[in-house]
Amino acid sequence: MAEPQYDRRAYPAGSRIHSWPAPDGWELRAFAWPAETASPRGSILFQGGRGDIFEKYLELFGHWHSQGWTITSFDWRGQGGSGRLTERRNCGHIGDFADYVADLRAFAAEWLPATPGPHVTIAHSMGGHILLRGLVEGAVRPDAAVLVAPMLGVHAIGGAWLGERLARLMGGVGDDTRPAWKTNEKPYTTESRQKLLTHDAARYSDEGWWKEQKPELHTGSPSWHWLIEAFRSMRELRGNPALKTMDVPLLMLVAEADGLVDPKAALAIASKLPDVRVVRFGKESAHEILREGDKVRNRAIGEIDLFLQARAQKR
Q: To pair with 45 at 20 to 30 A between CA atoms, which of 102, 208, 248, 253?
């Protein structure tokens, strides 16, 4: 049976956008789409990457909602519709990546008892990094989890060690809340932003359309402090011995030609996890695996669906 067509530029009927207050009072913009069946399949909490907005994933949400899943998401603190942490309106900034994990912990504490099980957390890129930290640190314990092109390392001049030292050096000169670079998702590259993210021009254009309609959702380059904290958090996560005992069933989708995050770092961490299935994509996929062309996207969604069918059961 062919998959239903979803309008990627309209909020689905029955969904709700609302404000969720974090424990410190910071307002996070959230999305909720309850299952429309007497016997829900379960609930998915989906989290995007740096600078993401949940509107980019409405087509994906439609696929799972049609299977009976309740769908929930929120924009990370300091980006999208969840406000900014610096006076530079479009700069993505964070004081400490632990703040992201704290938001995930508090949000999940409400989401788990309020939605039908089994519960699944799925996260892309920076969201994948935060989710894995949350799993390892006990901030959230779903029945199963999926990491999509997780930011567990980045391509840096001279490698992770030198990259972090350079970030600290550059960020230590002047105001570290200033943007680390001006354009694109990656400095010093000749590749267009689209080629870094997806080969699918139509899906790529959806993001621009939403930001034209709602310019307040746009998040540009990260701050130097964000970059410094990202390097620190990735380093500490790679060395965390609790990776070896994190027993939530995990699926990891890795784009081996990813121009933004380092797939080798993700594979190295996967080798430490006791219960993980890794699915690799070659040059056919850029960073946004779930927003790629249909061949790649359908394979990725199929792998997730099979994984959830096998592993997403109530504990």
A: 208
